[in-house]
């Protein structure tokens, strides 16, 4: 069983910053891809950013490009999302995701990010 535990969410004013962390219970090297998704009330879950384990190729949603940075620390089995210049539209529950080398997908429990105007 694999667990992903997000932390770092909270309430921040527009223009502020937060850093989300996702700690995995197993080696992040056993993943093919890790990423962050978010879901606002009444909206479908959307991709925020992903990073490929082999080679580190990164993809960002257009809505966060230039403001958010995804990174990883394999030694700590942890994925990060640095969020700068936050906007009210960024308000959502943010979920960590991992696609493992054996094909299974794991989701974290989510962490709430609220950006006030």
Could you tell me the radius of gyration in angstroms? 13 Å
| Percentage of residues in DSSP E strands | over 45%
Task: Name the shape in a single word.
Answer: globular
Question: Main sheet?
Answer: 7 strands, mixed
Describe this structure in words.
The chain has 117 residues and is an all-beta fold. It has no helices and eleven strands. Strands 2, 4, 5, 6, 9, 10 and 11 form a seven-stranded mixed beta sheet that branches. A four-stranded antiparallel beta sheet has the order 1-3-8-7, with no helix packed on it. It is globular and about 40 Å long.
Task: Write a brief caption for the model.
The chain has strands spanning 4-7, 10-13, 18-24, 31-39, 46-52, 58-60, 68-73, 78-83, 92-100, 105-107, 111-116.
List key phrases describing it.
single chain, 11 strands, 117 residues, seven-stranded mixed sheet, four-stranded antiparallel sheet, 0% helix, 55% strand, mainly beta
Q: Which SSEs are present, and which pair or pack?
A:
Layout: E1 4-7, E2 10-13, E3 18-24, E4 31-39, E5 46-52, E6 58-60, E7 68-73, E8 78-83, E9 92-100, E10 105-107, E11 111-116
């Amino acid at each position: 069983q694999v667990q992903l535990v997000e932390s770092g969410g909270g309430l921040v004013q527009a223009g502020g910053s937060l850093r989300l962390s996702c700690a995995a219970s197993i080696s992040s090297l056993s993943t093919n891809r890790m990423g962050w998704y978010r879901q606002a009330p009444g909206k479908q879950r959307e991709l925020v950013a992903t990073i490929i384990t082999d080679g580190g190729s990164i993809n960002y949603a257009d809505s966060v490009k230039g403001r958010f940075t995804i990174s990883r620390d394999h030694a700590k089995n942890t994925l990060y999302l640095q969020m700068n210049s936050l906007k009210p539209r960024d308000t959502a529950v943010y979920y960590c995701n991992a696609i493992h080398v054996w094909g299974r997908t794991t989701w974290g429990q989510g962490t709430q990010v609220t950006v006030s105007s």
